[in-house]
Design brief:
The chain is built from 2 helices and 9 strands. The chain has helices spanning about 40-50, 120-135, and strands at about 5-10, 20, 30, 35, 55-60, 75-80, 95-100, 105-110, 115-120.
């Protein structure tokens, strides 16, 4: 695996588009949402997870029945030259469209390269989707400070001296 991109199709959630890829030194780097050095262990674990995805069973039917007509996520996986890919070739890219979870919540409906539909194990896909929520940054990026802006504060009302103060009456 030479690159992994997790793209949420519905941008209303907290997930973001994340892409990690191997650089010239064959080390993982985060390319999206911010370019940064990647935690090699977390990135390699994600790459390993791809080859360990468990296919529960192939499926046939209408895309809308499985949530694949409007998938929640699209995972694009790049393979380096000389590395066997899902379809038996090398140097290829493959897409996994992630649809609904199964009624038993034990897997996801997935379509590979817009052709083959299957049910995959829940934990494998969930661990890949975590990249969308927690990109594998080696160090947390430090935000750049915004320039100071003038904030206008409205005047506050002052309390008049003749305002009676509350008194406390002890209870017997």
């Amino acid at each position: 695996v030479s690159s992994i991109e997790i793209k949420p199709v519905d941008a209303d959630g907290d997930a973001q588009r994340v892409r990690i890829a191997r650089n010239e030194q064959n080390a993982w780097a985060v390319e999206l949402p911010l370019e940064a050095e990647a935690d090699q262990g977390l990135a390699e674990a994600a790459a390993t997870q791809i080859s360990a995805l468990q296919v529960v069973s192939p499926i046939d039917g209408d895309l809308d029945v499985f949530g694949l007509d409007n998938p929640a996520y699209i995972i694009t996986i790049g393979f380096a030259d000389g590395t066997p890919a899902l379809a038996g070739g090398t140097g290829e890219k493959h897409t996994l469209e992630i649809g609904d979870s199964t009624p038993t919540n034990s897997g996801y409906y997935v379509r590979v390269d817009k052709t083959k539909m299957m049910i995959t194990g829940l934990s494998g896909i969930d661990s890949l989707l975590q990249l969308g929520y927690f990109p594998p940054y080696l160090n947390t990026p430090t935000p750049t400070p915004l320039p100071a802006t003038e904030t206008l504060v409205p005047p506050t009302e002052t309390r008049e001296a003749s305002t009676p103060e509350a008194t406390v009456t002890p209870t017997p």
